[in-house]
Amino acid sequence: MAGAQPRIVFRTAGHETILSMVRAGIGWAVLPWLALHAHDAFSDEQLGIRPLKPSPSRSLALYRPAGRTGSPLAVRAREIALDVARDLARRM
Question: Which of 14, 66, 81, 91 is the most exposed place for a label (fewest CB within 10 A)?
Fold first, then answer.
């Protein structure tokens, strides 16, 4: 962390809550890119967004019971998730 000493004063699972606190000037936050994208934070003039360098990686996985065939709905949901993930990865 190059000598940085973070002081964590608030924790929440709600990304919008964290973004609201940053907008109010209460502090800074480190959030995943997907959370910023989901809340359209990139078009918010009150936020200064800077990527971390080097950028941390994150792996997501989809698990299903072994030996079972997915329903047509589950198969389609997986296809959509993969398409969206590819599109977001290109934008990053």
Answer: 66
Task: Give the model's pLDDT for residue 30.
Answer: 87
SS3 label, residue 54? coil
> CA 81 to CA 76: how far, in whole Å?
9
Sequence-ordered list of residues with C-beta below 8 angstroms from that of 88, at least 6 positions apart, any chain: 33, 34, 37
In the predicted structure, residue 45 carries a pLDDT above the cut 70: yes
Q: Which two tokens stand for residue 24?
A: 């109010």
The closest alpha carbon to 15, from 27, 5, 30, belongs to 30
Provide the token pair at 69.
């065939």
